[in-house]
Amino acid sequence: MGLVAILYSLIGLVLLGGGLWLISLGGSWYFALAGVVLLLVAAKIRTKRANAQILYGLFLLGSLIWALWESGYDWWPLASRLGLLLILGIPLLFSFRLMGRSRISRLTGYWWLVALVTLGSLFNDAHQLEGKLNTAPLVQNPALGTSPEADWFSYGRSNFGQRYSPLDQITPKNVNRLELAWQYETGDTKGKGDIGEFTYEATPLKIGNALYFCTPHNWLVALDADTGERRWVYNAKVGTESQRQHQTCRGVSYLPPAQGEPAIITASGSKKAETLASMDCDAQLFLPTSDAKLIALDPATGARCKGFAEDGVLDLLHNMPFPKSGYYYATSPPVVAKGVVVVAGAVNDNYDINSPSGVIRAYDVKSGALKWNWDAANPADTKPIAKDKLYATSSPNSWSIASADESLGLIYLPMGNRTPDQLGMYRTPDEEKYATSVVALNLETGKPVWVQQFVHHDLWDMDTPAQPSLVDIQTSQGLLPGLVVPTKQGDVYVLNRATGEPIYPITEVPAPQGTIAGDFASPTQPASALTFNPPPLEEKEMWGATVLDQLYCRIQFRSLRYEGRYTPPSEQGTIVFPGNFGVFNWGGIAVDPERQVMFGMPLYLAFTSTLIPKSTGNLGEVNVGEHGVNANEGAEYAVELKPFLSPLGVPCQQPPWGYVAGADLTQGKVIYQHKNGTIQDLTPLPLPVKMGVPGIGGPVITKGGVVFMAAAVDNYLRAYDLSDGEELWKARLPAGGQATPMTYLNSQGEQMVLIVAGGHGSIGTKLGDFVLAFQLKD
Q1: What 3-state class would DSSP assign to 553?
Q2: What is the secondary structure of 193-231 as a DSSP string?
Q3: Which of 615, 649, 654, 655 is nearest to 635 (CA)?
Q4: Mean pLDDT score of the chain, rounded to an integer?
Q5: Prior bond to 651 cis, omega within 30?
Q6: Contact between residue 181 and residue 226 where contact means Cβ atoms under 8 Å apart
Q7: For 407-441, how does the pLDDT look when each residue is reduced to its tens digit (9 = 90+)?
Q8: Residue 488 CA to its chain's centroid (Å)
Q9: In 614-665, beta strands by DSSP E
Q10: Is there a catalytic annotation at residue 125?
Q11: CA angle 209, 211, 215 (to 5 degrees)
Q12: Which residue from 34, 127, 493, 497 lies 20 to 30 Å from 98 (Cα-Cα)?
């Protein structure tokens, strides 16, 4: 028992020392008291005192009462608090020499009571919101955009961005008959010199009998929609660049031919597209690249369309200030509407205050001639820029996916912030107005028609991350043209897309104050009536794999600055919750325009944001991605951004971290919310324990009442019942499924479900290069 006494002493000293530190910060007294008890038990073991076991048993019982008081009957918080203590008690159960059997029996009783109560909580879901969405159509023949029923013409199926398919062959009753129909491997994998965030995020288009999608290195791949056979591949040959923050491509865009029929791939399409000569094109595909190009390609052959720009290639760095390699690039597909292709781009966060512009530009779809440009720093002047002029420096950008309503003549852009994100003193009034918002621009002129901001003077990198979903919404005033857009901070805004006016109320709520000298925080921030915003964090919600790293997380929670949502960044270090990873990110939501409901995957992960004065000296390694230390060249402060983690690398806040949820758009109300995903691919042991895990990606709703989504950090594609969110089916994927799936009809009229599975570098899922298609089997 000597080794046991030493172990108890060491753990007791850590708990006592850390506990006293926590008390000095205003935190819980439990850990210091636990340290004292463990030291007493260790002393009694060394002196072979029989009451060591009784003392430890009473300590276990007291710890159970404390844990239940703090966390309720909830497995993960209880396991974190009690698991290590139960393990430490096992040697005492067998220490017969120190006591009589009656005392052994008493300790055994205490131990089993605590163990059984803890294990019993596995069967209690303390985080379930039960409910059922409407299943009957409320709107007959809703507007779905221009994509034919069998096809998928745009990233969100149409420019409406609904991620809704009118196909209904697959239903909750037969979805369990889905099996793999075919699988394709692209050959584009992460190589030497590629950045950490190498990600497969593409949602393919389905046009005629062909599928089109891009890979992280900007290959455009055309496959046969029936068999997955490769038709052609165009390699944009972008090369590696260490200064990019992302190496990804979310999709390509399509211009139908003049006669309105989809292009049909011919036998010549089986050649490698890079060997084909440039040609004139009727239909066109537009490929955005990570070296800031827009390439127009023929859907039938993969050849470049020579009439577009320079031999089919448009250089998006034209007229850019500070056109540094890797600082500006396109990760999302452009919008094709009303004779123009509208292109936005990503600007690296927090690398340099002198960075390229976030300008939005519209080019003629056939010639590539610039038709208009809208720069948030100069919003009134949208006429094409002169060749000898430059766009504004570092102005707010739109890196995600836009939507468009051609009948209204408007394009809707989810706007980000000006870099640097955490330092607001460099922004102009116009940039302040349009940052972290959705803005509606006239498709013909680029003039702003309306704007709705979601964060005032954003200091948290709360860029509007997701494509707005356009859906006509049934209200007491009748059917209104709606726009539904989710945000990183968890609010879902429901607006009239013609006017920008809120359909559900937007209020201004008080926000924390206090910033570094020279900056300020907005006294209020917008809040939507429809929201997934979590309650503020509390110390008792700090977590860890054991009671020891939970103590560390509690000390950090008390040491960092945190006054709720929108606590300003600080030199002290600030907890940002919801974190800048977002309650919602680019995967967004899916809406059902008939049933008038939405489905999404809200996430809850805290981050920390620390401003580092440059005067402190060496910053160490900088600019290796969005997270870590970013230099903010030209500014007085660098910034360090990272997830709020324990020393063991697990989140400092207790799970669940990831859910699936459904909301009623006619009520503006969340109806159900369930934990999503397991720890199967997070631990050395492949345990499929449902925990509610993080993820990134988006859902697709079908008329059959089934939702398809992967996204979670376990490698599965799942099907959910739209009505209640219950999981109906899942298929194991060979790599992470951090892309939004899609569905279509093959040439035999059979409904297929397709997903690209290649993993995601920043969340650590398995990398690959797979495309998988599923269909119903008898």
Answers
A1: helix
A2: T--S-BB-----EEETTEEEEE-TT-EEEEEETTT--EE
A3: 615
A4: 93
A5: no
A6: no
A7: 999 999 999 999 999 999 999 999 999 999 999 99
A8: 8
A9: 628-630, 637-643, 659-664
A10: no
A11: 165
A12: 34
- Dump pLDDT digits (tens) for 568-624: 999 999 999 999 899 999 999 999 999 999 999 999 999 999 999 999 878 888 998
Contact at 8 Å (CB) between 238 and 291?
yes
Mean pLDDT of 648-656: 92
Going by pLDDT thresholds of 50, 70 and 90, the confidence category of residue 269 is very low
Is this structure's pTM higher than 0.85? yes
Phi, psi for residue 311 in degrees, rounded to 5? 55, 35
Least confident interval from 264-273, 576-585, 702-711: 264-273
Cα-based distances in Å from 156 to 333, 486, 664: 10, 15, 20
Can you tell me the distance from the alpha carbon of 28 to that of 15, in angstroms, rounded to the nearest whole number?
Answer: 12
- Catalytic-role residue among 298, 352, 375, 461: 461
Minimal CA–CA distance to 587: which of 263, 103, 156?
A: 156
Which tokens in the block code for residue 294?
A: 């827009």
Per the CB < 8 A criterion, the answer to whether 532 and 670 are in contact is yes
What ranges make up the beta strands (E) of 636-762? 637-643, 659-664, 669-675, 700-702, 706-709, 716-721, 727-732, 742-745, 751-757
Q: What is the pLDDT of residue 274?
A: 54
Predicted local distance difference test score (pLDDT) of residue 54: 86
At 770, list the tokens. 């797979």
Handedness of CA 297, 299, 302, 306 (dihedral sign): negative
- Asked whether 95 and 555 are in contact (CB, 8 A), the reply is no
C-alpha R_g of the chain: 28
Sheet order of strands, 448-453 included: 403-405, 410-414, 437-442, 448-453
CA-CA distances (angstroms) from residue 61 to 68, 110, 117, 243?
11, 6, 11, 55
**Helical H segments across 72-145, by residue range:** 75-93, 101-120
Question: For residue 178, which amino acid is it?
Answer: L
Distance CA 562, CA 344 (A): 34
